[in-house]
Every structure is written in structure tokens, then in C-alpha cells.
Amino acid sequence: MTENPTYPEMLDLTGKVALVTGAGQGIGAATARMLAGQGAAVAVNDYFADRAKESAAAIDRMGGRAYGVQADVTDPASVSAMVAEVERELGPIDILVNNAGNAGATVDGMAPQPKFWEQDPAQWGPWIAVNYLGVMHTTHAVLGGMVERGRGRVITVISDAARIGEPELIVYSGAKAGAAGFMRAVAKAVGPHGITANCVALGATRTPAIEPALANEKLRRKVIAPYPMGRLGETADAAALITFLASDAASWITAQTYPVNGGYSVSV
After folding, report:
1. Which of 21, 127, 207, 239 could form a disulfide with 31 if both were Cys (CB 3.0 to 4.6 A apart)?
2. What's the pTM?
């Protein structure tokens, strides 16, 4: 970095390799497309192999370079195998986007939850496994290589639930908050090695997971009501900030959590 960079191509990611987890649809897919649009070669991960392959194929069709790879981020052996496969196919990973979340791939995270004090602790596992442990597994798998090369970006997608607490999603709130704390600690550990680590905290965003609920007009109005911007987030809203944090323009930004939430909550 020069003392006073001008960033003629601020978001240019040419020559970089990115891995985006949970990128078969929704925010992950939009992020993968945007990173590829800025020149990155993108590994598109999903729990479901067909989703990963189709999302990668969409990037190929638009002229980018992508590789679809199946893995379960809650399984450290699966994650290690994924990273090795990506590095064989695309090269060393420069950018990691921890996007996989909700309640994982096999639990309906939109289903009504019992009150926390009425839950069986066995119900907590899927939320913690993907939102907290999954972030740890993928970060652990790529961080050593980033340290060796002296560069890297780690961006974790969390939720405003982690920042303000959601009484109907207590375990999810805690798991996402844990991921944010983990990112802050990682940032301080690897900053001397030229690596940044940040979080993007999302408000309600239009994704395939919530589209069925939005068909109910009364419910849709209720969801939108707390948002001063008067609309839900779109996947591109999240992808844009993630792409910025992945770029050289964000080289002095680390250990932070940035809300993308239409004003639902404020950060000072």
C-alpha cells in the first residue's frame, strides 16, 4: 500500500481467490456474483452440491470464473477437504466470506420457536453449529495460509439479532454474537500479518428462506414497519459491503461490525 493510495479501480479483485460459504442461493449467491464481477475467482460452497454447482455455473455464464464445491461447514473434516479442493482448482484463498447460517441446511429456521425456557437443549445444536462453530471451522482452515502469505480478508455475515438481541431467537442471537466476538479476536491476532477480519450485520433481507412468509401482506407490512427506509434489504445490499471489505480499499478496516439494516438499529 502507498501512503496516499488513489484506488483508480477501488474494488478490483483481479487475481484474488474467494471462498463464499452457503452461496448456493440468497445473500451468498449474490456475494459470489459480485466478487466475481470484480475479477475474483470464486469458490461457491453449499451444503447441497446441486445448488453450489448451479450458482457457480451462473457466474461462468456471466463471464466470471467460479467453482462449485459441496461441504458441511459444521464438520471440520468436510471443511478441510473443501479448502484443499478449492486450492487445487483455483489457488490459495485470499478472501473468506462466512455466510452459511440460519439453522443450517436441514432445519427450518423459519418455523416458530418455543420460548427459550421451554426448549430442549438438544434444539440448540443446529443454530450453534452453523452460526458459530461453522465460522470457526472455515476460518481455522484458511487462516494459516493467509498468515504465511501475509495477506487476507475474512468477512463474517452475522445478524442484527447479535447486536440488539431478538427475544424469539435467543440461541441464534447468542451464536451470531459469538461469531462477532470471535472475529474481533481473530482480527487482533492476525492484523500484524496483513489480514483483516470484519462482520456485516444484516437486518431483514429478501431471500428464498423468507419469500414464502412475505406472500402474507399483513406479515410483510409488520416486518417492514420498523425499517425507516420502508423496505426489506436486498441481497445486493449485503453483497456490496462485503465486496468493499474484501478489497484493498478496506485494508485499514478490521475488527469491526457494520450494520446493513435500513436503519432498523443504529451504530455509533
Report:
1. 239
2. 0.93
